[in-house]
TrEMBL record:
Keywords: Hydrolase. Residues 7-193 form the L-asparaginase N-terminal domain. It comes from the Bacteria. GO terms for biological process: asparagine metabolic process. This is Asparaginase. SMART domains: Asparaginase (SM00870). It holds the Pfam family Asparaginase_C. It comes from Nonomuraea phyllanthi. Belongs to the asparaginase 1 family. Residues 213-327 form the Asparaginase/glutaminase C-terminal domain. GO terms for molecular function: asparaginase activity. CDD domains: L-asparaginase_II (cd08964). Transmembrane segments: none annotated. InterPro entries: AsnASE_II, Asp/glu_Ase-like_sf, Asparaginase/glutaminase-like, Asparaginase_C, L-asparaginase_C, L-asparaginase_N, L-asparaginase_N_sf.
Length: 332
């Protein structure tokens, strides 16, 4: 089967790629549906047998984890129906989270590629059509099978679990600083010289609500007064985005320990790249100290991805040891 024989479904969720100035508030807002997005790629019939699904039309900031669970079920149905690959277009603000959620929920080798745009369709140099075209090429490629969910932006191909939105507005915003991009597209070639190791699936039962997980970033001189409230506010887990390799201020330790007695606490790095340590620093509030208090290291997963994993794992009833192992496996 060549790329052009493959059935590729484009599922549109909204985001800048689909925005237009049709909004009573002024500015741009989601307006274009999946067919309109595909129509902006002139040679699309050459790339595959393209189908569309107008799943949602929201900014990335409005998506919720339950929407991604629903989307994963819809993608499973599409695969059962014989679709070869899926492209999801959405707001780039939350691609880190939605890519991670789909990666954990979809137990498939078929390509699922998430993309979006940093410039809206009426802006000079709009990147949406090129990003969508590349995503379709990747979703139709044999090379993209078995890699987990991918994110294509700016001609690069990233593993969803490592990708970061590292700039607020540029088309080059997406990086995989901890692991590197897996590949790229050039002309109509898909190049994927690197393959991630280790996959984790969450077999989520039908649950009414997903476990609420808070993301708390530490800051200079933090005293933990916010952190200590989280379990009473109904959070069933907490991701702490710590300094550097996983450190918190000494004033926070008591509260963090108390929280870790009540709910699982995952320790990530707020730096945007690299992994949490386990055995180097030995001062109060260091990674060694916090791990001894039962905190789970996020490894190379960034805080947004760590929060998605913790929420889905808790919703599936995983114990702390299994959650810790998942972070380790996904770190490579
Ligand atoms: N700037 C965002 C985007 O790139 C807005 C959003 O996430 O909806 O799509």
């Amino acid at each position: 089967m060549t790329g052009s024989d493959r059935r590729i479904r484009v599922v549109a969720l909204g985001g800048t790629i689909a925005m237009a100035p049709r909004n009573e508030l002024g500015g741009v807002a989601p307006a274009l549906d999946a067919d309109e997005l595909v129509a902006a790629v002139p040679d699309v019939p050459k790339l595959g047998r393209i189908e569309t699904d107008a799943f949602a039309q929201v900014p990335g900031a409005h998506l919720r984890l339950v929407d991604l669970v629903r989307l994963s079920r819809r993608i499973e149905e599409a695969f059962k129906d014989g679709v070869d690959g899926v492209v999801v277009t959405q707001g780039t603000d939350t691609i880190e989270e939605s890519g991670m959620a789909l990666d954990l929920l979809l137990n498939t080798d078929r390509p699922v590629v998430v993309t979006g745009a940093m410039r809206h369709p009426t802006q000079s140099g709009a990147d949406g059509p090129a990003n969508l075209r590349n995503a379709i090429l990747v979703a139709a490629s044999e090379k993209a099978r078995g890699l987990g969910v991918l994110v294509t932006m700016n001609d690069e191909i990233h593993a969803a679990r490592f990708v970061r939105k590292a700039h607020a507005s540029r088309p080059s915003a997406f990086t995989s600083a901890s692991a590197g991009a897996l590949g790229w597209t050039a002309e109509d070639r898909v190049r994927i010289p690197l393959r991630p190791v280790g996959r984790v699936f969450v077999d989520l039962p039908d649950v009414e609500e997903l476990a609420a997980v808070a993301l708390a970033s530490v800051a200079l001189g933090d005293d933990g007064r916010l952190l200590r409230l989280l379990p009473d506010l109904g959070y069933q887990g907490v991701v702490v985005a710590g300094f550097g390799v996983g450190h918190v201020p000494a004033r926070m330790i008591e509260d963090l320990t108390a929280v870790a007695y009540q709910v699982p606490v995952v320790l990530a790095s707020r730096t945007g790249a690299g992994e949490t340590f386990s055995d180097t620093y030995g001062f109060p509030g260091s990674e060694r100290d916090l791990l001894a208090r039962g905190v789970i290291p996020a490894g190379a997963l960034a805080p947004p991805q760590a929060r998605v994993l913790l929420s889905l794992a808790l919703s599936a009833g995983w114990p702390a040891a299994r959650i810790a192992e998942a972070f380790d496996v996904l770190s490579g």
